[in-house]
Amino acid sequence: MKPVLFFFKQLYDYAGNKLYINLLGMVLISLLDGIGLLLLIPVISYSGIVNFDGENSTASRVLSYIQQIPEAFGGLTFILILFVIINIAQNLFQRYVTIENVKIQHGFARSLRLDIYKDLLQANWAFYVKRRKSDIINTFTAELGRVSAGTNTFLQFITSIIFTKIQVVIAFFLSPKITMFVLLSGFFLSIFSRGFIKRSRLLGSRTSEIGQSLLAGITDNFNGMKEIKSNTLETSRMDWFQSISQRMYDEQMEYTTLKTASQFYYKIASAFLIAIFIFLSVNLFNAQAAQLMLIIIIFTRLWPRVTGIQASLEQIAATIPALKSVINLKNESRAARELEEFGTKNIKPMDIKLGIECKNVFFRYNTKENIYALKEVNVYFPANCMAAVVGKSGAGKSTLIDLLMGLNHPEKGGILLDGTQLTKDNLQSWRRSISYVPQDPFLFNTTIRENLSLIQPEATEEQLWEALKFAAADDFVKQLPKGLDSFIGDRGIRLSGGERQRLVLARAILRKPSILVLDEATSALDTENETKIQKALERLKGKMTIIIIAHRLSTIRNADQVIVLNRGEIIQKGEFKQLANEQRGMFNNLLKKQMEISL
Ligand SMILES: Nc1ncnc2c1ncn2[C@@H]1O[C@H](COP(=O)(O)OP(=O)(O)OP(=O)(O)O)[C@@H](O)[C@H]1O
């Protein structure tokens, strides 16, 4: 019962009283269905096959009363017209309720989808760092699809319950003995079949698990196709796919076997019950025609409902794991919310006049371990100056940048912007003033123009070319057959690594940021293009704050300040020349090694 209540609560939270109105509609349909059924009685008695008069039971008294009604109104014609009218009304209602149910079903899925998408956009960076992207996609697409299908089953299930309850009341009124017998049989069978529901739920969990593994594996496959081909990993990938396909097949077969088994038991039980009951009625209680009719009517109408409820319960149980993972994603992303709203249109970029400060910053990726990615970091970036952050791989350079941009938050200490602490309140305005070019830049699978104007929709043609020129990308764009309107493929696959970097740099500059952050942004460039960008950056000096992470130390020769990080700590800070002259310093060491390599 728990899964049913859980599902009901989620649906009620979405649909509110509309859910009850629909349920009421279903009750009406059920009532009309019952009336239509009762109308068959006079029709049957007209045929002369059965006559209910003279039998002494509640059932036969009611039946004989109903049988007499049409006489007063004009006989068979009246009853048949009434029968048709009631059927029309019932079907009209049925249509209305079906449409409303579908509205609830798809509306519920749409509302979950919108809520979760918004929550995902508002969630902080740490939320994404902890999770596999493919898991989020799987929950957001496949699991949500299962929930939508499950909602339909759920509404049908509730309808079934209401129908059954009303029919039980009518049946009880007509014959308490037979109804009790049917209900008791159903009750004992349901105890026996609880195992089926439990197994369905376990199978549902497995479906979720397999779906997750499938999407994760396929995403890896296609992202890493170059590695797969160049390292001839096709056979092992095929083996993996065959094995997961087999698991999917087995799981579907197991589910069908389970479903058909429970239905099989119910149907066999039904045949036995009817046979036993008719035998007992005729031989022990000398049942008369009316009672036998009732046995048949009640069994044939009530029992399939009991069976249907069992089937729906199994299906709902199998959907619950999907619903839970959708709800979990919603709750977790909401708990990780960093932005209250993202009405970025009204938010003005922050104007930094003095500088940005990291004050006594400590940061760990895993707070359960004693490994600090940044330890006691104190550094000041004066406004409109160029700073470079250097250090060995894993020293904490990107971590420092992430903290500066408010993507991660210091465990101790703080980021001060003109002396004001970076918090949730000024985060969006702060981010609006930054343009960031990451190590692995992202481009959308569309044209160059759209990739650029995504950042600055109102940019003119002239501004686009100006930004491209700055990033030394104008020449290669001009050479493309469709220029700015050329499509660049998935993540910009049709461009070279250096071309991609230059395009992302152009995009960053188009925004005219007051802070430009470049994380290894020129690593894929040849010397000629790198020199062009260095010169362009030189022109920007004094106009905006520039923070550069660079492995190639030649690129930061003109920086006003160089910060050397080692194992999360700042070990040197100063001007390029000054640090280069500190013979025992790490910077000098790094410089020497690079010079040896280039020689
Ligand atoms: N998401 C993460 N979860 C756990 N540890 C992380 C994560 N990202 C980075 N680290 C660890 O934090 C430390 C600093 O990493 P960071 O990426 O800041 O180094 P980096 O100096 O930018 O290195 P590189 O020059 O290779 O990019 C490393 O030891 C790294 O293993």
Summarize the structure in short:
The chain is of the alpha/beta class and 599 residues long.
Distance between the termini: 75 Å
Fraction of residues in helices?
A: 55-70%
Bound molecules: adenosine-5'-triphosphate
Please tell me what the overall shape is: elongated
What is the topology, as strand order, of the major beta sheet? 6-7-8-3-9-10
Order of helices and strands: HHHHHHHHHHHEEEHEEHEHHHHEHEEEHH
Unreliable stretches (pLDDT < 50, length at least 5) are none
SSE class? alpha/beta
Structure description:
The chain is an alpha/beta fold. Among the domains are: 2-335, Up-down Bundle (ABC transporter transmembrane region fold); 439-512, Rossmann fold, CATH 3.40.50.300. The chain has 20 helices and ten strands. A six-stranded mixed β-sheet has the order 6-7-8-3-9-10, with helices on both faces. Strands 2-1-4-5 form a four-stranded antiparallel β-sheet, with helices on one face. A hairpin with a 2-residue loop joins strand 4 and strand 5. Helix 2 packs antiparallel against helix 4 (76-122). It is elongated and about 115 Å long. Adenosine-5'-triphosphate is lined by residues 129, 365, 373, 391, 393-399.
